[in-house]
Amino acid sequence: MTAPISKADWERQRREATDVMPQLVGSVGLPKVLLPYQARTVGLLDTVSTKVLFVEKSRRIGLTWALAAYAVLRAARAKSARGMDAMYISYSQEMTREFVDACAMWARAFNIAASAIEDGLFEEGDDDGDKSIQTFRIRFASGYQIKALSSAPRGLRGKEGVIIIDEAAFVDSLGELIKAAMAFLIWGGQVIVCSTHDGADNPFNENIQDILGGRLPYEHLHIDLDEALTDGLYERICLVGGTEWSPADEAQWRQDLIDFYGDGADEELFCIPSLSSGAWLPAPLIEARMTATAPVLRLELPGDYLHMSDLQQKALMAPFLEELEEVLGPLDMDLRYAAGFDFARVADLSVMPVLAIEQNLKRTEAFSIEMRNVPGDEQKLVVGMVLEKLRERLLGAAFDATGMGWTVAEDMGRKFGLREAEDGSGLIWAIKFTEDWYRINMPPLKTAFEDDMIAIGADEDHLSDMRSVKLVRGIPRVPAIRTNEKGEAKDKKGKKRHGDYAIGLALAHFAARMRWVEYGYRAASSGLRHQRAEGRMRDTPNKEDALGRRNAFDGPLGARLRGSV
């Protein structure tokens, strides 16, 4: 097993990130009680809008401790302050006792903090409230309590409040338990499900994938070991243990932990559910969605293309460009479009699927382009023709910006605008593939296939590409192995494919989920508004209304505007 970041890289990153710590300690003081990722979790839960939260996490990062603080805060409040019972479920009595002990610790701490303002938080007891703290139950003066329940779904019947299901992937009958827990929402309750992973086929991971795919409207957090370490987990361990922290010690501690878990480190520490390398999408499902009339335009140039004269090169390109014009011409420009572009130059294909967004939001493939052994300038010419045709109705285009792909993305970005954030203004999103990108953006594509919200063209190579997507370390992606085109296995020189269409389609589907934004607005002059109000608008502009009040170097009214959602 290889961790996402090596020991040496982690030491270097953490050393650089903590160079400013002396100044920060001097200005801020001792670390806050909750680490940033713990505080984010509690803060998210304490918002009115969070009804259901799923958290996939690393082991032993102290999230249960933070949830105990939240449980105390909710149970200790009056009803008018959104107080309610808090219930905890896990798969073992030891974990349940640990949670209740943590709640007791927080309750005592909060009680001491509040003693100068009001009566203690408990119904009865000494200054520390110890007499009212019972095993598996804590009562508060608010009338609410923290209770530990069995993991049997029937144990939730007739109850209301906040329910915390900890290490949910290891709880028996999790699906039934979650179903029973959702009844808490009827009376304003809250459902919190957190766990490390226990296989990709576990109901916990199935819910996570449904959330990422947009099928379930729940909140979601992802906290792996590296995220916790970046937020100060090991520094807190050193503080509690009375030892001095250093980047080298942290890197060694991290590596020891990875070595200890061995092959299970991906799942236990980095939130990657384990699974055999089966196909991500079954062939019958893919074929069932191959209902679109989507032509595939294929361009392959000879190996000596660059040694030919300009006239010869143009002669080779002309038939393809003419075919492309014929496909672009009749496109329905009342629809919106999105495109993806997976770049390759030598070994693999460059693929550009174009999706039309129907009125019911179904993504239907309009056409796709495949280019093999095509130089960069010619690829830019082809891609530019497509984007220029669609720009008035283009929602966005996502480009593979890994390696040489960045040059195409950059040139298209210069012309159509680069986009770097969800609320950005450009049309071109340059994607540098990471495990996180696949983890977050492949589930929505799978959901579209399962919910019949995507239609693609029927093509044997494209079917093969889609089937080549496997779960690698629990994340859907294309493995390193290449396949032959159209059953050319007998030909040792058969043209190879590397899931190119699957990646292009994932990029196009990502682009189809972009939001349009307004990034510029320039109001008409007051004179024009007055004329409109008086009903005397003229066909020709009045210099007094506009030109006389504007700098000579300003662009025309309405410049730099592009509509967005």
Question: What features would you describe in this structure?
Answer:
With 565 residues, this protein is α/β, with parallel strands linked by helices. It has three domains: 31-223, P-loop containing nucleotide triphosphate hydrolases (Rossmann fold); 283-512, Nucleotidyltransferase, domain 5; 522-565, no CATH class. It has 19 helices and 20 strands. It has helices spanning 7-17, 21-28, 36-45, 63-76, 93-114, 174-181, 203-212, 225-230, 233-241, 247-261, 265-270, 283-288, 310-328, 376-390, 405-416, 435-450, 460-467, 500-512, 526-534; strands at 52-57, 86-89, 133-134, 137-139, 145-148, 162-166, 190-195, 219-223, 296-300, 336-341, 349-357, 363-372, 394-400, 418-419, 428-431, 454-455, 470-472, 475-477, 483-484, 496-497. It has an eight-stranded mixed beta sheet, with helices on both faces. Strand 6, helix 6 (174-181) and strand 7 form a beta-alpha-beta unit. Helix 1 (7-17) packs antiparallel against helix 10 (247-261), helix 4 (63-76) packs across helix 5 and helix 14 runs parallel beside helix 15 (405-416). The longest helix has 22 residues, at 93-114. Mean pLDDT is 82; it is low at 20-31, 112-126, 131-135, 487-493 and 543-548.
